[in-house]
């Protein structure tokens, strides 16, 4: 039976969601390290088998398809906003992602983002929300946790960063937040997030402007 466009959309969503399950299940004390690239490849192969599509692609083609994550388009405000953050306040901008270093380097280049530092879970051999990632990032930057602000579109990420002593900046993005607005955790986050950029503002550009206004 041939798959239609809706089927492939569900397949893509399942593939996108699978990496979160893989990283959440990872235990540094128990499991051998796998990069996010490896998770993406292995999860794609497993999904193809689960959907009865094993053999549709060769192993080399599966490997090539799994690298599509290296060519994601950034949010439209990202490049200009990051440049404004660096220019206006002289801030050091850095990633802190579950993506591996090679993935982050390609995304940075592909999107012309211009991050000063590319910090990755790969560096710390632990995935967010493990405290080793947030504390390790502060250490790599030569700063105390309280001198670092975590910027994210996921409140769970910010909650974990806050528990490690980092400041928190929430940038709303369409269809990114796992907590619904009715969720008590979401309502409580309104009280503890240090700076909240709404979806109707201009993302990182608005963040740079808001920080400039605070100076």
Automatic annotation (TrEMBL):
Superkingdom to which the source organism belongs: Eukaryota
What organism does the record attribute this protein to?
Tolypocladium paradoxum
Full protein name: (S)-2-haloacid dehalogenase 4A
Ordered alphabetically, the record's keywords are: Hydrolase
Q: Which InterPro entries match?
A: 2-HAD, HAD-like_sf, HAD-SF_hydro_IA, HAD_sf, PGP-like_dom2, S-2-haloacid_dehalogenase
Q: What would you give as a GO molecular function for this chain, any one?
A: hydrolase activity, acting on acid halide bonds, in C-halide compounds
Query: What protein family does this chain belong to?
Result: Belongs to the HAD-like hydrolase superfamily. S-2-haloalkanoic acid dehalogenase family.
**Pfam families listed in its UniProt record:** Hydrolase
